Amino acid sequence: MALESHNMKHQLHFLLVPYLCPGHLIPMVDIARLLVNHGAFVTFVTTPLNVKRIKPLIDTVNASKLRIRLIQFEIPVLEFGLPEGCESLELVPSRALIRSFMFALSKLQTPIEELIEATPISCILVDKFNYWMENVAKKFQIPRLIFDGTSCMNLLLLHNLFKSKVYENVQESKPIVVPNLPHRIELTKSQLPLELNPEAKDLRDLDEKIRTSQESAYGYVINSFEELELDYVKEYKKVKGNKVWCIGPVSLSYNNNETQHVGQRGNKSKVDLDSCLKFLDSWPPKSVVYVCLGSLNNLALAQFQELALALESCNFPFIWVMKEDDLLDSEFEERTKERGLIIHGWAPQVLLLSHNAIGVFLTHCGWNSTLEAICAGLPMITWPMFADQFFNEKLIVQILCIGEELGNEIAIPLGKQENYGASIKREKIVEAIEKVIGDGAKKEERRESVRKLAELAKKSMEVGGSSYLNMKMLLDHMETLTFGKPSTQ
Ligand code: UDP
């Protein structure tokens, strides 16, 4: 696309460099959509496999606006001992190869530098995991904003933990109170995110690079809305000298006549949408359990079977999204076919969550899934596994009171699941489902709380809402930085 044909004078040009995994790539695409809707140009850099995943959605924007330039560069996966096509974290075959994946990805630095030499860029928006972009921003003296794919609460917790070091010299099962927070948040050392988790020491040097490159960034773009976590937004702004812009939930960047586009978000769906909707239409409102543990998790076999037994014995209808190669007991699908729909592979999650028949989302508390549940007004059953997910569980269950926890006690780093067996028992899962969509005492209260949050989320993205205004402020700020004053448009 010939961006040069537009008048580039006083037109902000963002370079977006996402991390390569669905939970980070998807919201970056949504942010690209938001930026162009607010009048900026976007150059979006990723690899061939990811281009395939997101191009249909980008094409729908460009059909009307011609403002997102999608650029693909290869990464040398074979050179780093990775299988061909291994261009997304969930495809990395073992934990030992995550390091190689990160290094292969860092080879994007040279082509990105060549790209910037040919096209003037006003601002870089980069995922926190692409720490090597710090060098690029410095070399060309371009302001670098970080997208971390998480909440202000998580960023503040991490900041306070890291500064206070309260987790040092503490037994792994002993609760730690995170200091200087608006609420009393207790976690055990074994529930801490990877950067601080004793089970994930093998990537500590990379964590350190990521952390220091974040410190020197110009500011933060957050997929959250202020009304959701106001106290944490205020505190985190203090930490970052105000350069924090909450512009989400970005999954709400689609309007009502874009249902088809929402169905294409992130990847090509592995299920026929009509048959899914037919299944959901056949159930009463708020009766179906939607189970999806994110794009990265692979449950230990014993845990996977325990979840299957729970869904079989709970008597509620369910949709269970599992990995393409997950193997179920061959008779399970047969025994539950009257009330169970299994999706092997990618599901159009946001679209399904918006159906009135879904009553609860059993989630791993990934930040995108958490926000998507809130936007759909759905209470959650929380099963955090690693990274920020235990913090998100605190927000869902303790602060917002919109979820029921399964009580997972240990963060299991990616690729180590098989070591942990079935720590969450089927009775616990059935009990939680009963509480949320059966006869639970707090059922209505919980539902009302999340319904109100869904309204606030929607308002925040509408013209004049907090996230809408934050996006405008971000662009004004960047225009002043780039051109000396904001444009009047
Ligand atoms: N997702 C989806 N279909 C799937 C699995 C995941 O659309 O079958 C999307 C989901 O809607 C969310 C993202 O993938 O936007 C997952 O991000 P999240 O932060 O929830 O978890 P992660 O996968 O990064 O652990």
UniProtKB/TrEMBL annotation:
Give the EC number(s) listed in the UniProt record: 2.4.1.-
* Entry-linked Pfam families: UDPGT
What does the record give under GO molecular function?
UDP-glucosyltransferase activity
UniProt keyword annotations, A-Z: Glycosyltransferase, Transferase
Q: Which InterPro entries match?
A: UDP_glucos_trans (IPR002213), UDP_glycos_trans_CS (IPR035595)
Superkingdom, according to UniProt?
Eukaryota
Q: What class of enzyme is it?
A: transferase
Stated family: Belongs to the UDP-glycosyltransferase family.
PANTHER family per UniProt: GLYCOSYLTRANSFERASE
What name does this protein carry?
A: Glycosyltransferase
Q: Which gene encodes it?
A: LOC107476256
